[in-house]
Write a structure and sequence with these properties.
Radius of gyration: 20 Å
Largest sheet: none
Shape: elongated
Order of helices and strands: HHHHHH
Low-confidence stretches: none
Number of domains: 2
Distance between the termini: 42 Å
Number of strands: 0
Strand content: under 5%
Length: about 180
């Protein structure tokens, strides 16, 4: 969305976006009429079309820590995949509801990124831990050591610590500091 020259684009209505997402996620989506489900799905689609470019342009310049912007861009990529997806072939209410819920989860996650200036991902600590691991290992000489057969033999204390943080985050436990 572009604003006229000399004027900033108005801020996104995150409250409305969240309310739309919550109607699908909180309510039993199958209890909605097919028309209402279609309307909410189209609204969620529209919300994603508005918020995705906002996050894409803001995330890379948010901080020197590359994990938060990488996480925001990961969520944008996931939202783009969901935007291009369609409900299952059977087009049943169940399939349409599942599709709408996936869109709603992306809307809520991107709203979190939009409201949080440093684009931390509050709903997915395991994603941030995984991204820290992904950002470290390819750049670390110790992680990339292989033997003559191509088997990894590197012994990196940092990689081990990052992997343990990721495992704990997946289990819902916060790492000790």
């Amino acid at each position: 969305m572009t604003a006229p020259a000399g004027r900033a684009a108005p801020p996104l209505d995150v409250e409305t976006m969240r309310a739309c997402a919550d109607r699908i996620l909180v309510q039993d989506g199958e209890a909605l009429s097919p028309e209402m489900l279609e309307t909410l799905t189209l609204q969620l689609h529209g919300h994603l079309m508005l918020i995705v470019p906002e996050i894409e342009t803001a995330a890379p310049t948010t901080s020197e820590d590359s994990v938060a912007p990488a996480c925001a861009l990961f969520c944008v990529g996931e939202a783009r995949l969901r935007l291009s997806a369609r409900p299952g072939l059977d087009l049943s209410t169940r399939s349409r509801t599942a599709h709408a819920r996936r869109l709603a989860r992306s809307v809520r996650t991107l709203c979190d990124h939009y409201e949080n200036e440093d684009h931390q991902c509050p709903n997915a600590p395991e994603r941030a831990a995984y991204l820290r691991m992904l950002l470290h290992c390819p750049e670390c000489r110790d992680c990339r050591i292989v033997d003559d057969d191509g088997e990894a033999v590197g012994n990196c204390v940092t990689s081990d610590r990052l992997y343990e943080e990721y495992r704990q985050a997946r289990r819902g436990r916060l790492p000790r500091e």
